[in-house]
Every structure is written in C-alpha cells, then in structure tokens.
Amino acid sequence: MDWIDSHCHLDAAEFDADRDQVRASARAVGVGRCVLPAVEVANFDTVRQLAHQHADVYALGIHPLYTPQAREEDVQTLDQQLHLHRHDPRLVAVGEIGLDGWLPGLDMARQQWFYTAQLQLAQQHGLPVILHVRRSADLLLKGLRQTPVKGGIAHAFNGSLQQAEQLIDRGFKLGFGGALTYARALQLRRLAVALPLSSLVLETDAPDIPPHWLYATAAQRSQGQAQGRNTPDQVPRIAQVLADLRGIGIEEVQQASTANVCQVLGL
Predict the structure, then answer these.
(1) CA angle at residue 95 from 258 to 232, to 5 degrees?
(2) Is 44 helix (H, G, I), strand (E, B) or coil?
(3) Can you give the residue range of the structural domain that contains 73?
(4) What CATH number did the domain enclosing 42 receive?
(5) What pLDDT digit, counting tens, does each position of 12-22 carry?
(6) What would you report as the CA-atom Rg of the chain, rounded to the nearest whole angstrom?
(7) Is 36 helix (H, G, I), strand (E, B) or coil?
(8) Least CB-packed of 105, 142, 199, 240 within 10 Å?
C-alpha cells in the first residue's frame, strides 16, 4: 500500500528548480499520491496540470490568506471550473479554503464571505472540502453548521479535542504533519494519541511546516543556514513519529491514513 501526502503545494515557487525530482523522490519512498490544493484562481490550471502529470489529485479553492487580493468574481470562476472539470477523477475537493485568525491584518469578515461562498459551491457540487484551520476552528464549525458539506480534511489541525470531535462528527479527517515532530508540541501530540486512528491523515504542507529535522532556528538562520524546505518524501518519517507516540507499528499508521484519505476524498 502506498503513502498519500494529503496536503502538498507542489506548485509552489520553492519547487521551481527541481519539482519533478522532488516528486520522484517522494515516489521512491512510496508516496504514491499527493493531494495538491489550489490557493487562488491563478494557480487552478497549474495544480490540475501537475496532478495529471504526476498521477496525483487536486482541489480548487481560494485560500484565506489570498482573500485580500481575490475578487468576488473569482467565486464564479471557481464555480465554472468545478462544473467544467466535474468528470475529472483527479478533481477531489474544494480547497484550500477556510479562515485564519492568526495572521494580523486580515479582514475576517472578508475571509468569512469567501469561506461561506465556497462552502455553498462544495455543497452544490457534492464535493468535500480541504480546510485551513488556524485559530479559527469555532468559526469554521459555525459555517459548517450553516452550510453542511460532504466532509473533508481539516488540514494542519491544532485545536481542542472537543473541536476535533465536532469536525469528525461532520465527516472530517484531521491532518497531522511536521508540527507533530516537535517535542514541545504537547497539546498536538496528546490529540494525535487521543483521537481514533480512523480520523487521522498524514500530510506535509510542503514546502511549509518542516519537521524538526529540517527546521533551522533563528540563530542558525542568522549564521547563514537556510530554512529547511519541506517535501512530500517526509511522509513516512512523520508517520514513524505518530506510530511511536501511539505505540503501534508504522504499517498500521500507513494503512489507516491511506484508507482515511481514500474514504474522505472518494479515491
């Protein structure tokens, strides 16, 4: 059984120099599929082309961090693209969408307008969603109560056990990645052990959220060391951390995560 990286931005500029090699390296360690979420209308075509090129799957959506420059007409474009490619088996979700309550200066009302509009499209097109959750779980849940969708993945989840359980009850799986590898991430680690294995999926968020073995501290960066770039070939190593925390074999983690992604995204 192959690994699946349930969240990977392979189209990011950080991969421009060696994108094909990065994907080949991941395949060499058994990452058979990556889920490639779009972040704005401008990269819809790119993620679709990459998914077809590398036998991966993709999602189309407008990321909350891109709402300042997004236009309201972009939601119509998303609707048109979801309709146009509705028979494409590699199109699996609406995403990455959501709310960000962490980054200062973002207009929450504007974020919520795009979030709600995209939930409505997911509902109309019968697609799951890939959620960006950063200090926003309660607001996201409120939106899901008002506009129920076909489940999905709460990417890089780091909320409370109660919030996690509410998302699971709504058909969501929770994404765990590089942040789990830090010994100081006590709450996240407790969550990864307490939740049923049937609710967890593995991800990298490459090139972001590098695991601890790729992370350069501020002091190291000030001395010229580059920040480690996360890549989809890190999935098995992140999985080993999860397996060790739960006291189970890595094969059990692989089987569960892959089955969970396939179930929630209809693969």
Answers:
(1) 45
(2) helix
(3) 3-265
(4) 3.20.20.140
(5) 999 999 999 99
(6) 17
(7) strand
(8) 105
